[in-house]
Amino acid sequence: MLVIVIMMILMSHAVESREPVLHRVGGGRFTWAPDINFTDWSSKEHFYVGDWLYFGFDKHIYNVLEVNKTSYENCFDKEYIYNVTRGGRDVFNLTEAKTYYFLSGRGYCYKGMKVAVFVEQTPPVLHLSPGFKSYPYTSTNFIIILTMLATWTIISY
Known about the structure:
By secondary structure, the protein is of the alpha+beta class. 27% of the residues lie in helices and 23% in strands. The chain has a five-stranded mixed β-sheet. Helix 1 runs antiparallel to helix 4. The longest helix is centred in the last third of the chain and has 18 residues, at 139-156. The chain is globular and about 60 Å long.
C-alpha cells in the first residue's frame, strides 16, 4: 500500500503537460508565399494538440484556407472548412490530433502554397518537482527509484 502511495506522489510531481508551440509556417515571419517547400518544412516540425500555426503573408494577394484532403490534393478553394485569413499575420490553433490541410486560393495553390500538418496527441513531459532537482532524471533512474522503494517497503514489512 505504501508503495502505491509513494508511486502516486512521485508521478504527480513528475508529469506535466507540454507548453504549446507557435510554428511559423514556412519557417519565417512572412513565409506563406509561392516557391517555398512547405512539405519539406512540415516534415521537419513536430505538431501537437494545442500548438499554433502562424501564417505571415500579404492579405491583398494571398489567403489561407483550411480544406479537406481532396481539396488539398486538387487545389480546390471553393468549399473550404475555415478561412484563416484575417490580417495577414494570422494564427490557427491545432485543437485535434489529425492531419490539417491548408492552401492559398486564387491559383496560388498550384504554385506550391499548400501545406499538410500532421498533429499528434500532446506527449507528457517529465518535470522534476523542486525536491528532486539535484537528482539527474531519466526514465531509467525513475525505475531504479521505484524498485528501491518497493524493495525497501517489502524488506521493512
